[in-house]
Amino acid sequence: MTPLGRLRRSRREVLASSLVLVGLVGFVVLVYVVVVVGGGEAVGRTSSPLVSLSVLATALVALGFDPVQTRLEALASRVVAPEGQVSRTTRCGSWPRRSAAAMRRRSCPPHRPR
């Protein structure tokens, strides 16, 4: 397999990735506008943004990036998946819960020292 062969992705994967990218860019822009511009407007300083509000917006984006990305990936996989087909993200997303439940159901024999 050539190195470029591994980089090939289906149209659905490209579309899902594009939807996630657009959503993340929108999230970053929305947080910046609300915190920096809206906060500057509330403080009464509209000529130049406050550094403290920019730092706050950066912290909010950093804390919210992973949860937003996870939700956007799940949404994109549901939107892009063909009708009746379960996407890989949906199928594998519940794997930790299912495996933990399966481990609880199994009764392991007590450990016997030799």
What is the topology?
Elements: H1 3-7, H2 11-43, H3 51-80, H4 88-93, H5 95-105
Helix pairs in contact: 2-3
Molecular structure report:
- With 114 residues, the chain is mostly helical.
- It is 75% helix and 0% strand.
- The radius of gyration is 22 Å and the shape is extended.
Name the features.
single chain; 114 residues; mainly alpha; 75% helix; 0% strand
What share of residues are in beta strands? under 5%
Please report the total strand number as a whole number. 0
Mean pLDDT: 79
The radius of gyration computed from the alpha-carbon positions, rounded to a whole number of angstroms, is 22 Å
Backbone shape: extended
Distance between the termini: 51 Å
Number of helices: 5
Largest sheet: none
Q: Low-confidence stretches at least 5 residues in length (pLDDT < 50)?
A: none
SSE topology string: HHHHH
**Percent of residues in helices:** over 70%
Class by alpha and beta content: mainly alpha
